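Bench notes, afternoon.
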Amino acid sequence: MLLSRIFSLTRNTTSSIILASSSSKIVPVVSRFFTRLFSSESTTASSTPPPASDAKPAEKPAEQPLLTPEMFAELQKQVQELSKKNETLLRAYADSDNEMKSLRRRTDVEVDNAKKFALSGFAKRLLDVGDNLGRALEAVPSDIRNSSEPQHSQLRNLIVGGELTERSLLSIFESNGIK
């Protein structure tokens, strides 16, 4: 209420008020404005020439000052409280901005780790397949492997195909750093 009264009284002198973006600059600007307001009232009253001796002095009703010292002190107090609230809100905003950046970084790291571990799980399962293929080839007796009999020729071709598949799988693992 006090602020609205003061600003309605000083509507014509808004060019004297400079709103600064930093709350620490608002208090001195408002203080200077109202100091000038008080000093201009006292200088205006003393700088008016006295009425001519032949003219009747016009009676003016006693003017109530635009701003009393108590009102000025209250205004300064309110401005300081608002600047403290502004500082608190600016700090809260900066903290929340830092927290969001930190959350983004952590999320990016977690996504990268999830991708890496997903691929490592897949590779581990493929290693199991390669091991089983090797065991299956070792289970074939050596006399059948080395046999030149025509009835074992199809089985030998199957064994050769399994060995080629195993070598190919192992070379892919080695090229990707999996042992």
